[in-house]
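Narrative summary of target 7.
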Amino acid sequence: MQTILVTGAAEFIGSAFVRRLIAHGKCHVVSFDKLTYAGSLDSLGAVMHSERHQFVRGDIGNQALVLQTLERVRPQAIVHFAAESHVDRSIDSPEPFVQTNVLGTCRLLEAARSYWENLQRPAREAFRFLQISTDEVYGSAEPQEWFTEASPLRPSSPYAASKAGADHMARSYFATYGFPVLITNASNNYGPFQFPEKLVPLTIHRATTGKAIPIYGDGRNVRDWLYVDDHCDALHQVLSAGIPGETYNIGGRCLRSNLEVVTSICRLVDRLCPTLIHSPTEQLLSFVADRPGHDRRYAVDSSKITKEFGWNPRTSWERGLVQTVEWYVANRSWTEKMAEHSSTSLPHVELSH
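Modeled conformation, tokenized:
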């Protein structure tokens, strides 16, 4: 049975990917996570009790621990989600993002390369390292521009720069050592278990609790939205059939402004929670000063992955948003627990990613 090691497995997208592997795959999964403020074992749910899953608490920057884990569990693939990912936090304090996203990825790559080089030939040829990245590395798109895999990397925020640095490191390991790296750059994800500092869960939380919903600038910054389960399906296809050294963009083909996203959520909350005394919740919207370096538009061309693997997003924006709002309304205790885990997180607003 194949073993896959997943870093950042207790966070939003990583936990969704692990749940998918256990539910639909025939593999053993090793979840590797530091359990920072944004990570929770609750996100893994019933997976924690599966015979095909084990959890290792660790930091990707601890090269010795990573190598020790690799040699013990003997994975055929590493899927690397672990990252600091909050743009506003990166503006306030860039260094932790460089530490985790660049240096941490470098140390993970070094441990993985050392492990890979000692594999016997069939296993060595089959091994894959999947670097999970973001469309933010491309910077801000022009009005009619769509990011392709050939688009130059022009990151605007320290977060995006650190992810671009991690992508460059991964790509260099393929070019220099022949290490079998795959890179994916995805658009904005949404869905259950997303830490409530991000736009969608933050808006749901504030709408249901009657707190002001801040919107940067004029609210017309555009993002490409992708339901997390569709993203995980794409990642599984890239991991299974992707060509080492290649980059694959994964987009939702769903461009919405921040203002559109927030108002849609408010109307859903009003419908699903008709007894709220502060409804209509759109009255909670509050426009605030824009964030430094705020990219105006992201748009991802995912035609490469569609052409090569037949992948297309299956979840419409309307259905995905209903499922997401319903989940957060039904699981308010999870949001409150995560807020308690990091007392500074909910007031610290993230409105772009």
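Residues 2-188+227-252+297-314 form a domain with the Rossmann fold fold (CATH 3.40.50.720).
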